[in-house]
Specification:
Protein name: Protoheme IX farnesyltransferase, mitochondrial
GO molecular function: protoheme IX farnesyltransferase activity
Main location: mitochondrion
Function: Converts protoheme IX and farnesyl diphosphate to heme O.
Number of domains: 3
Radius of gyration: 39 Å
Distance between the termini: 142 Å
Keywords: Heme biosynthesis, Membrane, Mitochondrion, Transferase, Transit peptide, Transmembrane, Transmembrane helix
Length: 516
């Protein structure tokens, strides 16, 4: 039989059977009167002390009786369940026992400390606390824009524009555009700084590239938000998005996503080339159609997302290659033709960078990912999470050397990029060894934030032949690639040919002229 006892059952007249011998000896001179059960522990003991003239029983008398400790712990939960004692008199009064919620326990000053928490529980609690306070992420731009829009008047541009910007995830879109522009700039064109009327890399083409890429990125991000508003509401990073807060309708967000995608790919098709337009459409399909639903299915979503991040550098490279294409200008020539290894190396650099960056970022919010049902390595397999971050951090050394070998940068780039690569690997090793705790996730996150812009800027500064052409342009020396200054454009060549033509009469006169 299972019965319930109040926390103060040891002080009842029929509860002395559970008191140890030392406590009985301490209270032998005191006769506890048999009186009706009082539902207030402190009042009952006070009345007993007033009647008998003896001091009130202290809790220390019962420190050897673990029933009191169990009763106090159960009183905090609301009930105490124990097996039936051997004393039949207590079991017989089960029906008359008062309910635990009707009993008032003693003050906390007389409550003995509970059992000490087990060591592994302490370590788990420390890890949870560290995961919540270890990494301070920068403010979310989409959340800031949503807050700004919510305070603006309804049906106004001040409200609509921040909402549309929030749907496009501005920071992510800017990163995508910058990587495409950097790859466009790094394309090795010998005539880049030559003194010609029109530069070999068109500024207008660059404008179409940036505008179209921005709209394609906005479309992909808006479709991503359309797919998962109910799960975004479960995470602190995403619960302030416009669709979650109802600042824009689903139809309005879908219209924005479709229009952005159509206009973006159209600008890339007519303003750049069809290959770049196809890559922009492919990026939308992979991000919104594969990566987004795969987040709830498999940890492979991270690899798909990395491929999505590697496509913009290929777009910039193909845009530049299309201006110097000598054949039909198809995707085979622009992406698989001779001399296009550099574009794939730049794409590989972006793919590798996303792993240490995301693994560190996701670790600090792994509990939120788990509660929302997103299958990320940070909580599915934390040990592998650190290994993947370290593995792809090491990949930057061969990638930077490959850019030098392919003729995209000077060999000095391999030396100049070594310190930032070493820093990233050092933080990745610490993150892997400590599995994110003790500040290792924060260190790797900020190392990755600084790593990408530093490497891309160094690559542009160390572009192959850049400073040699700048020096020749400053001092006026001829370019050795131009054949010692003997190279002529089409107009100059036609002028020379015209000047070399001689009339038949002049030729006869020249023949009749006696030689001297």
């Amino acid at each position: 039989m299972i019965i319930r006892y109040p926390a103060a059952s040891a002080f009842r007249s029929n509860g002395l059977g559970t008191v140890c011998l030392s406590c009985i000896l301490q209270t032998a001179k005191t006769k506890i009167p048999s009186r009706p059960v009082t539902r207030n522990f402190s009042t009952a003991t006070t009345r007993a002390a007033a009647v008998t003239g003896t001091p009130r029983l202290r809790a220390e008398y019962f420190s050897a009786n673990n029933l009191l400790e169990k009763a106090r712990a159960a009183s905090r939960r609301g009930a105490l369940t124990s097996s039936t004692p051997s004393n039949g008199s207590i079991a017989g009064q089960n029906a008359a026992a008062p309910k635990p919620e009707d009993i008032h326990t003693t003050s906390t000053s007389t409550t003995p400390p509970l059992k000490e928490e087990l060591p592994h529980r302490k370590r788990q609690a420390a890890r949870r606390a560290a995961s919540q306070a270890d990494l301070v992420l920068p403010q979310n731009a989409s959340s800031n824009l949503t807050s700004q829009a919510s305070s603006a008047p309804a049906n106004s541009l001040r409200r609509l524009i921040p909402i549309l910007l929030s749907l496009s995830k501005p920071r992510l879109s800017i990163l995508v555009v910058l990587t495409a522009m950097a790859s466009y700039t790094l394309y090795p064109v010998p005539e880049l700084l030559s003194q010609t009327e029109t530069p070999s890399l068109s500024t207008l083409t660059l404008l179409f590239l940036t505008t179209g890429t921005t709209l394609c990125a906005a479309s992909a991000n808006a479709l991503n938000m359309l797919y998962e508003p109910k799960w975004d509401a479960l995470m602190s990073r995403t619960r302030n998005r416009p669709l979650v807060r109802g600042l824009i309708s689903t139809r309005g967000a879908a219209l924005f996503a479709v229009l952005s995608g159509v206009i973006g790919t159209t600008l890339l098709y007519f303003g750049v080339n069809p290959t770049v337009s196809f890559l922009g459409a492919l990026n939308i399909a992979l991000y919104a159609g594969v990566y987004t639903p795969l987040k709830r299915i498999s940890v492979l979503n991270t690899w798909v997302g990395a491929i999505v991040g590697g496509i913009p550098p290929l777009m910039g490279w193909a845009a530049a290659a299309g201006q110097s294409a000598t054949e039909d200008g198809t995707w085979r020539e622009l992406l698989l033709g001779e001399g296009n290894v550099g574009g794939w190396l730049l794409a590989g650099l972006l793919v590798a960078w996303q792993f240490p960056h995301f693994m560190a970022l996701s670790w600090s919010i792994k509990d939120e990912y788990k509660n929302a049902g997103y299958r990320m390595l940070c909580w599915v397999n934390p040990a592998r999470n650190g290994r993947v971050a370290l593995r792809y951090s090491l990949a930057f050394f061969p990638i930077c050397i490959g850019l030098c070998y392919a003729g995209v940068t000077e060999w000095s780039f391999a030396i100049a990029s070594a310190p930032i690569n070493v820093w990233l690997v050092k933080e990745a090793v610490t993150f892997w060894r400590l599995e994110g705790i003790k500040g290792s996730a924060r260190g790797l996150f900020w190392a990755s934030v600084w790593h990408l812009p530093v490497v891309m800027i160094l690559a542009m500064v160390e572009k192959k032949g850049l400073w040699q052409r700048v020096w020749r342009a400053v001092v006026g020396e001829p370019d050795p690639d131009d054949g010692e200054g003997e190279w002529m454009d089409e107009d100059e060549e036609e002028a020379v040919l015209e000047a070399s033509k001689v009339s038949p009469e002049a030729r006869k006169a020249d023949i009749a002229m006696p030689s001297r």
